[in-house]
């Protein structure tokens, strides 16, 4: 169950990452941000974002043209 | 945060296309918790103008994808630069690419430090009032002070 959702569909690099960072800033540690994106580059980018910031990528999936991610704030 | 990583960028170009790399990298690095500084010099100063009017030209840029092949003598006709700029901006908006205005605003929001090269400001007779607020004016020595302990340094 996500605490916050972010619709990043239609946005291109680096906007999904920047919007996610902004959303996470407003959240409490342990909370989960759910993100929907259409940028195919976002798959690798969210992996890299999480490995560098310490946030946990708890879910990453693809459903047709939409990518879905869940990030737990560190 | 302990051991904050640092990124130092020198941005030298003032066309619409080349305003992107420093701003994309700076905003992304800031989102990755880097401490970011951009040193804007020569044509890069155009990006910091309050009234910026960045353009792109197919002329002298044979790698620029065009909707229809266009001979060089057509590319140099009056109005072609403006037309190419309008078309590029429309394409970017259609593909969900951020505008330069938006990226600059996001960079400033995330505390990316902007340094303008005072020598080039003098060279081009720019006034400090013409550039956005919050810019620091300094020279090469200041850049090295920033870059000496940067983890990543880029020249664009």
The largest sheet of chain B, given as strand count, sense and whether it forms a barrel, is: 5 strands, parallel
CATH homologous superfamily annotation of chain A: TusA-like domain
Helix content of chain A: 25-40%
The CATH C-level class name of chain A: Alpha Beta
Beta fraction of the residues of chain B? 15-25%
Describe it for me?
Chain A has 74 residues and is an alpha+beta fold. Chain A contains two helices and four strands; from the N terminus they run E-H-E-H-E-E. Chain A has a four-stranded mixed sheet, covered by helices on one side. The longest helix of chain A is centred in the middle third of the chain and has 12 residues, at 42-53. With 156 residues, chain B is α/β, with parallel strands linked by helices. Chain B has six helices and five strands, in the order E-H-E-H-H-H-E-H-E-H-E. In chain B, strands 4-3-2-1-5 form a five-stranded parallel sheet, sandwiched between helices. In chain B, helix 1 (16-31) runs parallel beside helix 4 (100-109). At the A-B interface, helix 1 and helix 2 of A face helix 1 of B.
């Amino acid at each position: 169950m996500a605490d916050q959702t972010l619709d990043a569909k239609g946005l291109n690099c680096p906007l999904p990452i920047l919007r996610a960072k902004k959303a996470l800033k407003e959240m409490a540690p342990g909370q989960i941000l759910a993100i929907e994106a259409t940028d195919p580059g976002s798959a690798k980018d969210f992996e890299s974002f999480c490995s560098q910031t310490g946030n946990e990528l708890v879910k990453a999936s693809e459903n047709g043209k939409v990518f879905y991610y869940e990030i737990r704030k560190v | 945060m302990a051991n904050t990583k640092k990124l130092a960028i020198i941005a030298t170009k003032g066309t619409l296309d080349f305003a992107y790399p420093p701003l994309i990298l700076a905003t992304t690095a800031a989102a990755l918790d880097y401490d970011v500084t951009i040193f804007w010099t020569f044509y890069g100063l155009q990006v910091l103008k309050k009234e910026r009017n960045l353009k792109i030209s197919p002329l002298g840029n044979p790698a620029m994808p065009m909707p229809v092949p266009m001979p060089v003598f057509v590319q140099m006709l009056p109005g072609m630069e403006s037309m190419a700029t309008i078309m590029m901006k429309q394409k970017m908006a259609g593909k969900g690419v951020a505008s330069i205005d938006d990226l600059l605003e996001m960079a400033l929001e995330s505390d990316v430090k902007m340094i303008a090269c005072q020598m080039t400001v003098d060279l081009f007779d720019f006034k400090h009032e013409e550039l956005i607020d919050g810019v620091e004016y300094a020279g090469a020595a200041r850049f090295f002070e920033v870059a000496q302990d940067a983890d990543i340094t880029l020249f664009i």
